[in-house]
Amino acid sequence: MRDRLREALIDSEYIETEASKPDFLVYLMGPYKSYPPYESSASAEVAAATTRPTLDEIDRQLEEGTLDLDVDEALALLLALKRDLREQTGVNAFLATDPEIPLEEMDAATQSIEYTKAATATIFVAPAMGDNLGVGIETGSVCEHVSDAELRTDVAFYGEQNVESAMIKAVSARWHITVDDFESYADLFKAIRAHLRTVA
User: What pLDDT, on a 0 to 100 scale, did the predictor assign at position 188?
Assistant: First the structure.
């Protein structure tokens, strides 16, 4: 899987920056959608204001610095983390969608498990504005299928301050992985870089 990920990430249409450490795979997991989910509306004005752009559109706006973070802050956060980790740290950071492995071939839960096993490090991020239900489900699934040693050394979970979750508490108590909180993007990025240095 490691070799397949490396090859897929080189060719991925969603990754624009090269990693100077291509073997240092960092799997980023978090919500792609803000919470609460946007509701459909009969009002064209409201519908236009709550329509989520495509991944390509968000990536382009991030690159140009024109992204309105109110559009979908959760995905924007992950994309910014991926780009900054690749550019400033040189690691081969990626999201689950980047390798573009069809769900017909490997379902989303299995992908997360296999990506974690293949990655050098895995980072779970739970922002306050994110729809974290899927993250909680995937976190438990991954933790149940990855060795205790790898969970203790390679996996970290970061939740924004004031995000309370029974799953977050279980991650620390049951699986003994690194759990920390963050106040700002700068705090989060600093903590992730420190964790990656420890893994390295």
Answer: 93
Which residue range(s) make up the domain with 172? Answer: 2-199
**Which one is predicted more confidently, 28 or 11?**
28
* Tens-digit pLDDT profile for residues 103-113: 899 998 899 99
SS3 (DSSP) at 180: strand
Q: At a CB cut-off of 8 Å and minimum separation 6, what does 156 contact?
A: 121, 122, 123, 124, 177, 178, 179, 180, 191, 192, 195
**Residue 39: its pLDDT value, please?**
46
The number of distinct structural domains making up the chain is 1
Residue 162: φ, ψ to 5°: 75, 5
Q: Kindly provide the residue ranges of all beta strands, DSSP E only, lying in the chain, ordered along the sequence.
A: 21-29, 91-94, 121-126, 155-160, 178-182
Q: Is residue 195 a contact partner of residue 156, using CB atoms and an 8 Å limit? A: yes
**CATH number of the domain that 86 lies in?**
3.40.50.450
- Other CB atoms within 10 A of residue 107 CB: 10
CA pair distance 82, 16, nearest whole angstrom: 10
Contact 51, 90 (CB under 8 A): no
